Amino acid sequence: MNVQLLNKKEAIFESTLKLINEYGFHGTPMSQIAARANVATGTIYHYFSSKDELILELFKYCRERTNDHIFNVDQALSYKEKFFFIWNRLVDYYIANKEVFWFIEQFYSSPYYELIQQKKNPSYYGADRMRLFFEEGIKSGIIRDVSFYTLVSIYIGTATSHVKMVTYGFCKMQAKGREDILEIIWNGVKNQ
């Protein structure tokens, strides 16, 4: 895909992301997305056959960007250091990119998530990278052999909860508090 086409597609994604955060899925018509992206409405239909397809692809786009950011990790780090690094990168990314965070949260609570589930392909939204990371820790005997969904609930669940606490103003983003959270998570999942 050439740069100009990629830029138009990204402009459509960024426009959709902003509008959905402002007006929700149903309050964001394609014409408004086109106007905000500074493209013709027909251009959107060149890339996406429907608004549903656009939203599904936006979810994929957001997850890929997020995962590219959080898994940009130095492989020389110990597993524990990677565990802390990835969690902190996720929290930092979501706080710096609140529209992405709130879109993903809204997406998981919507019927669109059901469409993803029907595909039966977790790599579609980046879960494979997290799965491989946890499998590495289990296979090497560093973390407990529990289900992927248990680990994700503990690891990602606390990260998203912390982002919400910071975003809502219930707590300040302090290094000590984050380190405490990570130590509690780590002590719960590491092999004793």
TrEMBL record:
InterPro entries cross-referenced by the UniProt entry: BscR_C, Homeodomain-like_sf, HTH-type_Tx_Regulator, HTH_TetR
Chain residues forming the annotated DNA-binding region: 29-48
Keywords: DNA-binding
Keyword Transferase attributed: no
Any one GO molecular-function label of the UniProt entry: DNA binding
Pfam families: TetR_C_10, TetR_N
Boundaries of every HTH tetR-type domain copy: 6-66
Top-level taxon of the source organism: Bacteria
Protein name: TetR family transcriptional regulator
Taxonomic placement: Bacteria, Pseudomonadati, Bacteroidota, Sphingobacteriia, Sphingobacteriales
